[in-house]
Design goal:
Layout (H helix, E strand, L loop, with lengths): L5 H14 L24 H19 L15 H16 L8 H24 L1 H4 L15 H7 L16 E2 L2 E2 L3
Antiparallel strand pairs: 1-2
Length: 177
């Protein structure tokens, strides 16, 4: 495998995922799984929160991030937690024994984009301007409203008229997958 060829590297990665093996694993032999944050239970939550808290402290200190990027109450905001957890996992995945250095470079190329998203989310939350935590009310969308249920009973896709879509058109209606 040519380590400088993205196609070969991606193929190896996806083959490792499909087979359940790994070329290098996480740094230090860590094998912590990636969790869907909203699905954490009382057994996995304390470990995940502790690891994330330590990592966020490291991130803030190392990159000198201000409260306008990561407010002191970051852990009380699901949108910040999701972004920081994704960053944590990306940073951990970017350091493997077989990586020639592109993993860390890729992480650092993406870091400014994540910092800008964190800054925007923090601005939207409003905790920094108030210099105190502001409890945000989640916007809950009704999925049991009669209008939604009636709408969701139909596919609402338009046929493109492209002959390549023939396999996806059923009764004149374009369908996904």
């Amino acid at each position: 495998m040519n380590l400088f060829d993205d196609d070969d590297a991606a193929a190896a990665l996806f083959n490792d995922i499909a087979s359940g093996s790994s070329q290098g694993g996480a740094p230090g032999g860590l094998t912590e799984p990636t969790h869907r944050w909203r699905d954490l239970d009382s057994v996995t939550a304390p470990k995940a929160w502790t690891a994330l808290g330590r990592w966020v402290s490291w991130l803030v200190a190392t990159y000198r991030l201000t409260t306008s990027v990561v407010p002191d109450c970051w852990w009380q905001h699901p949108e910040l937690v999701a972004e920081l957890y994704a960053l944590q996992k990306a940073e951990l995945a970017s350091y493997t024994p077989t990586d020639p250095g592109f993993g860390p470079l890729g992480f650092h190329e993406r870091l400014p984009l994540a910092i800008e998203r964190l800054r925007q989310e923090t601005r939207t939350i409003g905790c920094v301007g108030l210099q105190a935590h502001r409890e945000a009310r989640p916007r809950l969308l009704p999925t049991d409203a009669p209008e939604f249920l009636a709408w969701s009973a139909e596919p609402h896709q338009v046929s493109t008229g492209n002959s390549n879509d023939d396999g996806h058109v059923v009764d004149g209606t374009f369908r996904h997958g």
